[in-house]
Amino acid sequence: MLVKTFAITGATGTQGGTLAHLLLDRGHPVRALTRSVDAPAAQALKARGAEIAYADFADPASLTTAFQGVDSVFLMTTPFGTDVETEIRHGSATIDAAARAGVGHIVFSSVAHADRATGVPHFDSKYAVERHLVASGLDWTILGPAKFMDNFTTGYAARMLAAGDFALPLAADRSIALICAADIAGLAALALTEPERLSGKRIDIAGEETTPLRMAEAFTAAVGHEVTFQATPAEQSRAWGEDLYKMFRYFDTVGLDVDVTALRREYPEVGWHTFADWLATRTW
Fold first, then answer.
1. Distance of alpha carbon 219 from the chain centroid
2. What is the average per-residue pLDDT within 27-53?
3. pLDDT-derived band of residue 154, with 50, 70 and 90 as boundaries?
4. Superfamily of domain 6-145+180-205+258-272 in the CATH hierarchy
5. Dihedral of CA 269/17/89/64: which sign?
6. What percentage of the chain has pLDDT greater than the value 70?
7. What pLDDT is recorded for position 160?
8. Bridge partners of 54?
9. Is 118 in a helix, a strand, or coil?
């Protein structure tokens, strides 16, 4: 049986790290790409048997070197901390480096609805990377994760929940698709290890569609105290930046829908999580 090596970008972050650990759990060779090879998250992967390789999106030569001998790549990009133009440049440079290194297949983690001309800056930048990937000549799979459940576990959102408050610039009954990092990793691992099933496909992914009101009820059951949802004014989200303001306006006026039923039917081995399922995996 041919043993394949998978290179994971963002391996010290939530998405890439979850995928790297899942692949290691299943006995697959993992090359974890990072700019911070001595970071605790990188060393934790190394302790589990991953190969740690230095790579910087802004340094194409480092990417080409890191991709040598790799069969498939998991690619994720972000404009946060830089800007959308930088995200497009980094994503395109990574795809080009993979092609130079002879990589056979790239699994790109984009965002749900990126291909629908949303006008949301970081959706549009990811779609530009998608188009570059499709035109690259490489085999590809594109995953479009919905809104991340995991974002509720840190920072301002976690502090609000601890106080019993849950606020979003969305109507209480606005249905929105949600996904956890474990499900992104589950389908990404399937795309990497069984490329014949997903090559050439672009798939929006989520574990459940629910509403802020039902999310507050689920939070109440999980954290052990009442959590109340408050729909905040749309303008308030401008304090988070124009990009996130436009994202929440899109969610509230257009919606974020994903065919969850079809995903569960087509890829049952992922073990998709509802919001309540995901909450039960956390310590609150």
1. 22
2. 96
3. confident
4. NAD(P)-binding Rossmann-like Domain (3.40.50.720)
5. negative
6. 99
7. 86
8. 34
9. coil
Name the token pair of 183: 């499900």
Q: Rounded to whole angstroms, how far apart are CA atoms 36 and 165? A: 36
Q: How far is CA 178 from the centre of its chain?
A: 11
Q: Each residue of 231-258: pLDDT tens digit?
A: 999 888 888 899 999 999 999 999 999 9
- Provide the pairing of β-strand 105-109 with 72-76: parallel
| Among 191, 208, 184, 193, residue whose Cα is nearest residue 259 | 208
The strand pair at 165-168 and 176-179 is best described as unpaired
Contact 176, 256 (CB under 8 A): yes
Helix (H) / strand (E) element for 223: namely helix 212-223
Does the pLDDT of residue 3 top 70, yes or no? no
Q: Which residues of 147-160 are buried (b: 16+ CB within 10 A; e: fewer)?
A: bbbbebeeeeeeee
Residue/partner pairs of 10-16 with CB below 8 Å, 24 or more apart: 10/74, 10/76, 11/41, 11/42, 11/45, 11/50, 12/36, 12/39, 12/41, 12/42, 12/45, 13/41, 13/76, 14/148, 14/150, 14/181, 15/76, 15/109, 15/181, 15/184, 15/185, 16/74, 16/76
Side-chain-side CA neighbours of residue 99 (13 Å): 15
Instruction: Provide the token pair at 16.
Output: 């890439």
